[in-house]
Write a sequence for this structure.
């Protein structure tokens, strides 16, 4: 009796495979069923690496890739993506096919939603967002970048920000002039610490402003401030607040009124990966 094709997370006995070109196929989605765009995949057979590469997935998260002659009936696949835990899946080969089925990757860090609030006197805007560690291992965040996009309700957790970044005193750096109205900025950043007994710290940080006569103006502000999410923070949303002026004046540019309702937040991790979220 011909055995059925099986996808299993457990070890399976290897059997000889004579096919000259095995096609590995399946779909890769997140834990909510949303298709991924790019993955990292490694395929092994009997401790021999058959394939290791970054792969652009087809629409719907589909993958289909030739492995050549594998010589074994069991494949061990390691699939990962930026911001997701690695999944290890063992699959049987039958004929010229090896099916992964639907592979679900679990995020190790969630970012969002973002809430945009105008302060009472109208001088500044709060951008509040939530970071949630989904993994028991510690994560180190190296910097927070704000650029510019819309608002959602925040979840019902502790509404006191763990860390607050306050960008102010935004100025053009020196006499910076260049084509396409690009300006390098000097910005004061006041960081309110997570513990009340810690002192506030003020940094001089970088930013940029680009006014395109044929497109939107873009402002980018960088907070190079490192903090950690520890094992005890797993599955506990932590609130971060960014405060920015509602409007400000740049020399040789004039009054700038960024559309903070369409802001983007980018979190850079210690491993170089970037997790992003947009308001709205």
């Amino acid at each position: 009796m011909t055995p059925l094709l099986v996808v299993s997370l457990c070890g399976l006995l290897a059997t000889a495979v004579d096919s000259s070109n095995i096609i590995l196929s399946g779909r890769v989605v997140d834990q909510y069923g949303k298709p991924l765009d790019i993955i990292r995949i490694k395929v092994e057979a009997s401790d021999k690496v058959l394939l290791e590469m970054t792969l652009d997935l087809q629409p719907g998260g589909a993958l289909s890739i030739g492995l050549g002659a594998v010589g074994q009936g069991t494949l061990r696949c390691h699939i990962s993506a930026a911001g997701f835990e690695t999944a290890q899946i063992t699959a049987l080969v039958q004929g010229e096919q090896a099916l992964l089925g639907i592979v679900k990757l679990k995020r190790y860090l969630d970012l969002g939603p973002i809430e945009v609030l105008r302060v009472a006197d109208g001088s500044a805007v709060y951008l509040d967002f939530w970071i949630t560690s989904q993994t028991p291992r510690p994560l180190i965040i190296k910097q927070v970048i704000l650029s510019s996009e819309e608002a959602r309700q925040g979840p019902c957790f502790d509404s006191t920000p763990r860390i607050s970044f306050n960008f102010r005193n935004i100025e053009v750096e020196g006499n910076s002039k260049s084509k396409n109205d690009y300006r390098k900025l000097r910005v004061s950043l006041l960081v309110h610490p997570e513990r009340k007994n810690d002192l506030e710290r003020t940094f001089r940080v970088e930013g940029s402003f680009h006014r395109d006569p044929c497109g939107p103006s873009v402002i980018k502000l960088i907070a190079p401030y490192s903090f950690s999410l520890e094992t005890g923070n797993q599955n506990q949303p932590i609130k971060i607040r960014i405060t920015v002026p509602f409007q400000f004046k740049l020399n040789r540019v004039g009054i700038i009124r960024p559309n903070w309702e369409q802001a983007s937040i980018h979190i850079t991790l210690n491993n170089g990966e970037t997790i992003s979220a947009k308001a709205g």
Remarks:
- Residues 109-278 form one domain.
